[in-house]
Amino acid sequence: MTLCIAEHGSDFATPAYVVLDEGFRPAGRAIQVGSLGSAFQRNSIYTASSSDFCPVQLADFAAFCISRTQWLMAKERRSPADDAFLKIIASLRLNVTNLPETVADLATWTPRDYERCIDDDRRAKGLKPHERSG
Length: 134
Known about the structure:
Elements: H1 2-7, E1 19-21, E2 30-32, E3 44-48, H2 54-73, H3 80-92, H4 111-124
Parallel strand pairs: 1-3
Antiparallel strand pairs: 2-3
């Protein structure tokens, strides 16, 4: 997170005010981050309940959309409801740091296409592609 903040510091206000969902720690806490602290507001990361801090609800929704989309794109067979969900989420055009946008024809898309996209992204980031058995 600190590296991301350093690389994209001109894209938002720094030091960053970072809030985590209360599942990590009880709500209302300030967690001191030591030597990494200069990137964070008051050298801390904060915890909050999504009912008290609405941006956490937005982050939860974005995380759900991303994980559900990835899961559906890796499925061997999708239902019409799955494809409808994918079309709805695609229309949102989520702006996600470090996650490339992919255009897919749902009629022909296969899990191998998903694996190829993941491997291409890993290569672009200087990482090795996943080793798969079979």
